[in-house]
Amino acid sequence: MSKTRNPDNKSYSFALWNRGHLGDCIITLNFLRRCCRRDPGAAPVLYCRTAQYFHELRLLADAFASRIEFREWPNLQRGPRGAVDAWLGADDFLFRHRSDGDYPLIYRDLFLKVSKALGIQSPIETPLDNLFEIPRPASVRCDFDWLVINAVPYSRQWAYNEADFDYLVARLLSQGDRIVTTHRLRHFPHIPSTWDLRLPLRTLADLACSCKRIIGINTAPMHVAINTASFDSLQDVYAMDNRHYFAYDERFHRCFSIYELVSLLMRHGHLRPAEERRFGLGSRNAPAAAKRELPTKHPAETRKGRIFWCHIDDPRNIGDQVACPIDYADLPGERVDLTQPVGALDASAIVFGGGGLLHGDRLTSKIGRIAQASRKLNPKLRLVAWGLGANEHGRHSARYPDFLKTFDLVGIRDYGNPWHYVPCPSCLHPVFDNPASDPIYDFVIYEHFQVPIAGLPAAPVRTNNADRREFSDVITFLAQGDCIITNSFHGAYWGLLLGRKVLIFRPFSNRFLGFARPLEYCDESDWREKLRRCARYPDYLAECRTINRQFLFSVRTLLED
Question: Which of 270, 224, 271, 268 is nearest to 246 (CA)?
Fold first, then answer.
């Protein structure tokens, strides 16, 4: 029987498997609800990673609950036999999609693919079909100015930090705005939260109709709050996501960082300018830190021990050489080259970073052994990761070693990591203090010395095989191009800092996935088309410097305690 047409309304079953988190399953549920609405004979089965999702999903299924069956499937590597994989990340679908982070368009294409595998007609024909169908409440008043969705993201779509929301909510409250959150903020217990009230996501869908605007991380509550009932009444939606957002119309905005969000709210007239505090927005102790001044003295020797700064000091790779924060931190210590044999270090503190130190099992395990052995020598040892990142060739996702959980302070250069997002500290180099000169070439090529770039027209070319003393010359070279075509992480990073367009040529490592701005990827066949789609990010340098200076404050505080 063809499932594209079922005139006799005969019952038939099909199964989908989604290994993602609750938000992914909710989006798949919307697809299944619409399948049931179109074809009364459909009796779908949805496999989820945990039965904990079933309560929320059944409430959202509404009238179709009796026809959609939910089953638990904890195996995240292989789905049940006969079930079609509906996860957005399956087969690198999200990574390979040619959209600028447009979630509705991405999901429309995903469900076209899923429907083809099922042999049915997709009910998601337009981007607006991704909206959950919710009956509009009989009486709706805009009782709240803001619905703040501060649920913790588990798919690395945002570098979550509760202090970011403390800062943002404090600014909104200071101007008299009415706020409701999804999760309680410790420093603002008087603000109502749906989590404290134990309200299900179905109720959140109705609550969104009583809110003028939404600020939120792209998590499960966001997928429910933007629904058919609330869509027309919402004035603005600010999605906090490092890559994707709901691009339905001009009311929907994407923010890559808390700094960009605050700037955007001020530009739209929703937030009054205020004097910035000295504490970092990323500080976990922001309210206490606000009362303190930056230390003026080195914390050196206060704990009667040495500070070691461990990084890769490869004379063939200038990115590794200039990425160590000791060059910019105004803190004492000794360099340790991780390319050399290193045992336990008798130290008061060890700082690892920056650079792509999470590079395969050999180097990653070496860092773990150094940290573990050194802490045996000194149980009070402070361990810090500063601006290091994932760097595994051939992988399309990042993974982080368990030993980082034992560190006292972790700042990873990959945006959306489970800890603090701290970009490479080389942004603090004084070479970036002055604005770059005007470009003289349409593009320049900056290639990794081990992976030459071929197949492009003649253009100025330079490799990353240089000494730190040549750093000024490297930046001058990059600034000559209006666009930088590169397969070097630092070539892309420095290009963004310069305000240039950046085009990644044949990315060969997961290190290229951690930028806090969307970049274009190309090869020799489509580089011209991708070049036209490249964007500039003039606020990127200031953001990276601000984050690193705030992290420096956290490091100083840690070393003084």
Answer: 224
